[in-house]
Amino acid sequence: MKFFFSLTLTALLAYVSGLYFPWWSIAVVAFIVAVVINQSPMKSFLTGFLSIFLLWAVLAFIFDQQNASILSKKIAQILPLGGSSVLLISSTAFVGALVGGFAALSGSLLLKKQRNLVY
Predict the structure, then answer these.
(1) Is 25:57 a contact under the CB 8 Å cutoff?
(2) pLDDT digits (tens, 9 = 90+) for 46-88
(3) What is the C-alpha to C-alpha distance for residues 89 and 55, in angstroms, rounded to an integer?
(4) Which of 28, 60, 78, 85 has the fewest CB atoms inside 10 Å of its own CB, making it the most exposed?
(5) Residue 119: is its pLDDT beyond 60?
(6) Domains in the chain: how many in total?
(7) CB 105 within 8 A of CB 44
(8) Range of the structural domain that residue 56 is part of
């Protein structure tokens, strides 16, 4: 239950923060959610990773469909992706997911270390 709540909360807050702050605000959101919702480090990493991956993949797909894939195909031709919009969207979502996952892992490990120091 914590996993799905954390997944949803991270994605929702990352979306809202992305409207007003720079792209790296997803790391701050994932870090804070991992500190507030106590999970194991592995689950925290998966929560941050999956929530940001799904959020960025869906948003990139929506934006790609709005402009008929014109921009993504041109960018995919510049990069070594063979002109594939799907690979571009996947790689973009993967990079964001790594940022979110490692931020959530850092928050979880900080909380774990903090609890070890107290006791």
Answers:
(1) no
(2) 999 999 999 999 999 999 999 888 888 888 888 888 888 899 9
(3) 11
(4) 78
(5) no
(6) 1
(7) yes
(8) 2-118
